[in-house]
């Protein structure tokens, strides 16, 4: 899978109880193999047991207005039940990028509502990776 829309960096953290960033370097790899992440994600519950399997929460525990991006239907969704999702928190751009607002929530919630929009490279890459990993939903801290 090629990531050509956003810059690439390698972040290295300590493997301690409270991880901290110890190195930050440009990553000049042009290709990334999502199978590596799939293998790590599938191995984690097997190796770590219940520490990697979250306890189920009632859907009523979701914050009001909690929304996800459905990468399959390319729109914003508000789920009534708990679903598995990937999370993206990133450094926002200059403020000119797409934002979910009351005036566009109806449009962005329609199937295909995100398909023809100009999304930031970080968001587009994250959605592509999410889909490549077989995950349907992604929470993005600002869209």
TrEMBL record:
Domain Heterokaryon incompatibility: 85-143
PANTHER family: DOMAIN PROTEIN, PUTATIVE-RELATED, HETEROKARYON INCOMPATIBILITY DOMAIN-CONTAINING PROTEIN
Protein name per the record: Heterokaryon incompatibility domain-containing protein
Source species of the chain: Hyaloscypha variabilis (strain UAMH 11265 / GT02V1 / F) (Meliniomyces variabilis)
């Amino acid at each position: 899978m090629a990531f050509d829309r956003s810059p690439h960096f390698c972040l290295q953290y300590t493997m301690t109880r409270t991880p901290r960033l110890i190195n930050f370097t440009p990553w000049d790899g042009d290709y990334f193999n999502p199978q590596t992440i799939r293998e790590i994600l599938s191995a984690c519950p097997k190796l770590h047991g219940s520490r990697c399997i979250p306890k189920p929460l009632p859907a009523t525990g979701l914050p009001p207005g909690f929304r996800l991006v459905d990468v399959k239907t390319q729109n914003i969704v508000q789920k009534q039940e708990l679903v598995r999702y990937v999370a993206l928190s990133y450094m926002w751009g200059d403020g000119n990028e797409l934002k979910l607002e009351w005036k566009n929530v109806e449009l962005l919630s329609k199937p295909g509502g995100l398909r023809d929009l100009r999304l930031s490279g970080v968001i587009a890459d994250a959605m592509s990776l999410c889909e490549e990993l077989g995950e349907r939903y992604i929470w993005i801290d600002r869209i």
